[in-house]
Amino acid sequence: LYPQGSEEAKAFVLAFLKRSMPKRKDETIQDMLTRKAVVVKHYSKNKAKPKRKKTKGFTAKQRREMRLFEIEPEQQRYAIFLPLHELWKQYIRDLCHGLKPDAQPHMVQGKLLKADLHGAIVTVTKSKCPSYVGITGIILQEFKHVFKIITKEDKLKVVPKLNNVFSLELDGFISYIYGSKFQLRASERSAKKFKLKGTIDL
């Protein structure tokens, strides 16, 4: 260590400042030394922000193993789900502003295509598989490719959307759903734009 005020210490500080501030003139450095305080700026490197981990839900395999979507046999009774159907009817009336007689059919149809169908009573009116025709019941679950329907006979039917036409009636308004064009999850339908077509094949 050098004693304060020594020439060696001054020379060291002066050389250090010249290296640290090469663009400063000698006069400026000397002026800074006479103030007896030197502030050397330190630029810290920007630290990369840690990426937030997305919370993952259950996989399809885990949902199957946990039987999240299975309806227990003792719960497979038509009468249990009639209140759900009443709630669905009120939901559709509110959605379509009362289903008045002067309501435009295409407007009602457009809203039904995007509506939640859990609780609706539907009937299979056309099918490439004759055994499906005539099945009527309340929709308990809607998946991308199938409807799970509980019939008045307390039987749970899994009806594919593909190659089937479904009808539903509410306050005298009958709507037809072409399942082949309806293969979407309920959450996806609300954002999809459906095109109106004159005729659609099974």
From TrEMBL:
<keyword id="KW-0819">tRNA processing</keyword>
<dbReference type="GO" id="GO:0005730">
    <property type="term" value="C:nucleolus"/>
</dbReference>
<dbReference type="InterPro" id="IPR023534">
    <property type="entry name" value="Rof/RNase_P-like"/>
</dbReference>
<protein>
    <recommendedName>
        <fullName>Ribonuclease P protein subunit p29</fullName>
    </recommendedName>
</protein>
<dbReference type="GO" id="GO:0006364">
    <property type="term" value="P:rRNA processing"/>
</dbReference>
<dbReference type="InterPro" id="IPR016848">
    <property type="entry name" value="RNase_P/MRP_Rpp29-subunit"/>
</dbReference>
<keyword id="KW-0597">Phosphoprotein</keyword>
<keyword id="KW-0539">Nucleus</keyword>
<dbReference type="GO" id="GO:0030677">
    <property type="term" value="C:ribonuclease P complex"/>
</dbReference>
<dbReference type="GO" id="GO:0000172">
    <property type="term" value="C:ribonuclease MRP complex"/>
</dbReference>
<dbReference type="InterPro" id="IPR002730">
    <property type="entry name" value="Rpp29/RNP1"/>
</dbReference>
<dbReference type="GO" id="GO:0033204">
    <property type="term" value="F:ribonuclease P RNA binding"/>
</dbReference>
<dbReference type="InterPro" id="IPR036980">
    <property type="entry name" value="RNase_P/MRP_Rpp29_sf"/>
</dbReference>
<dbReference type="Pfam" id="PF01868">
    <property type="entry name" value="RNase_P-MRP_p29"/>
</dbReference>
<comment type="similarity">
    <text>Belongs to the eukaryotic/archaeal RNase P protein component 1 family.</text>
</comment>
<dbReference type="GO" id="GO:0001682">
    <property type="term" value="P:tRNA 5'-leader removal"/>
</dbReference>
<comment type="function">
    <text>Component of ribonuclease P, a ribonucleoprotein complex that generates mature tRNA molecules by cleaving their 5'-ends.</text>
</comment>
<comment type="subunit">
    <text>Component of nuclear RNase P and RNase MRP ribonucleoproteins. RNase P consists of a catalytic RNA moiety and 10 different protein chains; POP1, POP4, POP5, POP7, RPP14, RPP21, RPP25, RPP30, RPP38 and RPP40. Within the RNase P complex, POP1, POP7 and RPP25 form the 'finger' subcomplex, POP5, RPP14, RPP40 and homodimeric RPP30 form the 'palm' subcomplex, and RPP21, POP4 and RPP38 form the 'wrist' subcomplex. All subunits of the RNase P complex interact with the catalytic RNA. Several subunits of RNase P are also part of the RNase MRP complex.</text>
</comment>
